[in-house]
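Per reviewer request, we include the raw input and output of the structure prediction for the construct analysed in the revised manuscript.
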Amino acid sequence: MDSTPPPSSASPCDMVSGALGEYIPRGDEEEPGPGAPRGENGQRERPRRGAGRPEQILGAVNLDRDLRITDSNLDAPVFEGVDAVPGSSFVDLLPPWDVPTVTRRLRQVLDTGEPHVARVQRLRRRDGSELVVSMSILAAAPPQDGLTVSLIAMARRLHLYAAETAIGTSLDIGETAQSLAESLLAWGDVAAVDLDFAVWTGEVVTGRPQGRIRLRRAALVPDRAWPDGYVTPGDDLPGDASRLLAHAIRRDDLAQAVVLPDRAAIEQVLGSPRLARALVPGDQAACVACVPLVLDDEPPVVLGVAEVWRRADRPFEDSELFDLQELVARTAHHVDLARQHQREHTQVLALQRRLLPRSAGDTIETASVYQPATPDSAGVGGDWVNSFPLPDGRTAMVVGDVVGHGLGAAATMGQLSMEARALLSAGLAPGEVLEHLDETVSLLDDAESGLAAGYSALGSTCCIAVYDPVSHRVEMASAGHLPPVLVTPDGSAGPVAVRPHPGLGAEFALREPFDVYTFAVPPGSMLALYTDGLVEDPATSIDEGIGRLSDAVSAVHPWDGLEEAARRVVASLAPSHLRDDVTLLLARMIGYRKEDTATWRLPARGDAPARARALVTGLLERWGTREDTRDSVLLVVGELVANAVRFARGPLTVRLIRTGHGQLLCEVGDTGNGRPRLGRMDLLGDGGRGLHVVHGLTTRWGVRWTDDGKVVWASVGR
């Protein structure tokens, strides 16, 4: 049997009233219906209620687009004196200082249709007193036009519950303090929350603070213009005021609430016109309750102080002070949770930014952008990007996305990033580096090793690219990461065709060798490495997102500054409300000029060292190299070639590079797989002397591995 009620054309105001009747017993007397007669003030006449009837606490007001009242249901006794007369402006029911804020909220709901739910608000009665309500603003249901404002009269215990629920919804310390101040407004005309500076910055707070006491104003309501000199959010309280408040609430080493009942007492305690201007919100404020935010610990920790101001004709009653202290006590732990989150967020963000590229070499220009999803998204995510020059003159670019957010993801991110840098600097190819990172993620996720700590990085992705400025080529390998975008000097752009591979830490059966893809990047080419937050959109495919990125990067002019261009690309692609962290690295390839490099291929014969020295001598003369530098380079090249002839096989490749920072880079490649090592030199033997000569004449030397052998390189200052 269908029990669905027939459609109704009742207004939203009548619908709220009808819904109220479903949950509040009505007793013997009936409420007036929509057609009930109205009194002289335009409101429906309410019949006298039975003595045992429960008190109604919900009402509704309909507004048109000009914010004028079209209908209302404020018939409950608790709304007595709130004159919602049809045709009058809704803001006439508000205290004057609340009018701008509430008007802005009403207009926002009209424009966007998004409701504004459950905010503490005061309404004026005709006798000058005020009623505290929980106000929600909703767009009127079609076919009605305008707004429906729902009002719930806030009984004290109900308000305590609602306030505690609202305060615990954010991990941002500013929003938490603001929610507390808005809830405290139910007991006064002005509410402020001042926090210890260590709480504001997320530092450790102790029960007995050492040194100078410093309080910072974290929240202040209502939102209006304040007198000159008054401390507003973000400002530090004067030092005298901080010490005064701290001393007042720490009587006998116990944090206690303090009430100053009148203007004379306030002026006597403050003792300074400057402090009065800083702490007293206006001439009418003549009574204040200061309630400490105490974290229940041993010893108790005072996080700050909440102040509630009233006019002289409304002194605080004992029951009200009890409610104030209970609310602050219930919500102090929310403030501490926000402090802890702020601390973790700051630590993770510092680690994240430390991994951002600091500088590149003379052969490449880089710029990066990192944007976390939201300030209170349980910390910052595990996206990272880095670029750094390698000792052999090449440049490495790494981008990764670690699963999850927060400190666990940040720790894994830092470990993988540093490991990748160390392995690349040691000369390993991108594919070999990913093999090591894959093993690291598997070890971190091994529960038996005790390293997991409740966090799993399985499925993290990484892409490594290494740019050779002499050959103008890039070696790239990827572990489950989205393909980089390449823009060539002729303006064509598109993703690099890197073979897909599972993410890091895949099961053994799924593991395959990481392919290294090599491609040409002529001078002037641009490479974009990024994480998925930049291109993912639920409404479109990932290929469309990569296509939009390709178009945006190809629009960067060769003369544009790369930092500004990177910010512009992110601004054009990233959504206004980020669902994931956004990371972008732009790299513009410059490379070495042809006249600054030379390469020779020599057979691995006994005369190879002499031939190499002759070829290098002619080149150094053309370059105008100093004689002492020339002698050092000839010795180094001769020893490296002789070592390759003795211990390697196949043809040799000799390369000399004149870098832009006063160094000559000598490289000798062969097809051997043995690693040259600098051991203890035997004075009576002839083995190992060559590497000691190289070590003594160079600023740095090392080995990098290739598909068919190795390259030994050495840097000599010129």
